[in-house]
Amino acid sequence: MNSSIKVLLVEDQKLIRVGLKSLFEDQSDIEVAWEADTGKDAIEKFKLYKPDVVLMDIGLPDISGIETAKRILEINPNAKIIMLTSHLSEQEVQTSMNAGVCAYVMKDVNTETLKMVIKTVKDGAIWLDPQAVPILREKNSGVIPPRQMSRAMFKEQHSNLTQREYEVLKLVVDGKSNNEIAKELMISEHTAKAHVCNIIQKLVVDDRTQAAVKALKEGLV
Question: Are strands 103-106 and 30-36 parallel, antiparallel or unpaired?
Fold first, then answer.
């Protein structure tokens, strides 16, 4: 049984599609199973094939990748969408994350990181390109509502989080995968995953995306 992650690649430039597809040709766990060169084509193929992950450019010739993401998420709110772009603007980061995409990735990302993003997004992670993190943190551009309580108040209300869980939560907010968290804190990936699961449970949220948003919203990081 083939258990590889099935990807729908949405990119209007053929050379880029060919290049991206070639990255996964020798991978047994990731497969670019379908391609689309317009937003409307992407929506129809999403309906038809139900891919595990959608890897999509923002700039498409008919409707934008962001609008396409919104329409796909209307079809399936649990769709896993990665925005792949060469643009880094406050508006695009804000609009993409508000639309509900799982990751915002710059096209200069290295191959191994892109593979990691696809795998972790499939498992429910959120990932922000390091270049985009300051936009969410410093610009506070509407993706994260204004901070509403002090860090001390947050800690008081969520005192059941351990110190290690606070450390892990900060790395989740930074867009780190479980593997990266494990390396940074010098713990096993299994332990890192367990900490993330505990955080999600203790903050009463559904996934690490919501945990990161809640931490930023309420002023912990």
Answer: unpaired
